[in-house]
Amino acid sequence: MGVGAAVFAVAAAGLAVSPFGAPAIETGLASDARALLLHDELGFASARAEGRTLILTGAAPGPASHAAAVKAVAALPGVIKVDKAGLSITERVKAKPVAPEPAPTAPMAIPPKTAVRAAADCQAALNRTLNGRRLTYRLESARLSTEDRALLDDVAAAARSCAKQTIVIEGHTDAAGSEAANLRLSERRARAVEAYLRQFELPAALVVRAYGEMRPIASNNSEAGRSANRRIDFVVAAPSAEPPAESD
Fold first, then answer.
1. Which domain holds residue 232?
2. Based on the domain organization, do 182 and 130 belong to the same domain?
3. Strand order in 205-212's β-sheet?
4. Which residues contact 221 (CB under 8 A, 6 or more apart)?
5. Handedness of CA 90, 96, 97, 100 (dihedral sign)
6. Is residue 65 one of the residues assigned to a domain?
């Protein structure tokens, strides 16, 4: 066969030779495939041709996009096969919604053992000083007697060992009179004690609480019982994160 016959045979087979020696059909198929992929917004895939086989490479964002790219180029005229081995699928994992973290809660304040011990020692010192003694009040009176002042002098001396403690001065009454009047009277008694102790500039904090007739220690049916209920109690507050509230 002569040279002319050979060229005719190649042309008849549809494999015309390009000026650079590469089959023209490969260049045309690859160009058409790339243009189609871009038009169909499938630009994640790249195409090249080997004969009438299109070879796809790249990374599809999902199975549907992968199938669409293969289907699109397979429909091009002249394509007899699509090699999709080089076209991978990269799944986009949707981030799961993250529930907001709960607001941190403040840990419960637990007083150290040394603070608890110091409060207990202070209470013990006051109890030893009182030793059963108490302030005495006449009916409906908040006036401090000479004996009361002497007793408070001893209380002040004991309280000097109560640094950084809170001493609650509790005022109480008997049940004679109205509840509201007794509440006011118990506060007047506690305030009088507080005012007297303030002059000693004690290292302990002083807090007043008024209870009126609500916390009797004896029966109000007898004069002895009512007299016992007209009293002031000294209570060292337990250590805590917050100081005890004072009576208004």
1. 113-236
2. yes
3. 205-212, 166-172, 232-236
4. none
5. negative
6. yes
Tens of pLDDT, residue by residue over 42-91, are 888 888 888 778 898 988 888 888 899 898 888 877 778 889 888 888 76
Q: What are 97-140's pLDDT values in tens digits?
A: 666 767 666 655 556 668 888 889 999 999 999 998 989 788 88
167: tokens are 């001493």
* β-pair type (232-236, 166-172): antiparallel
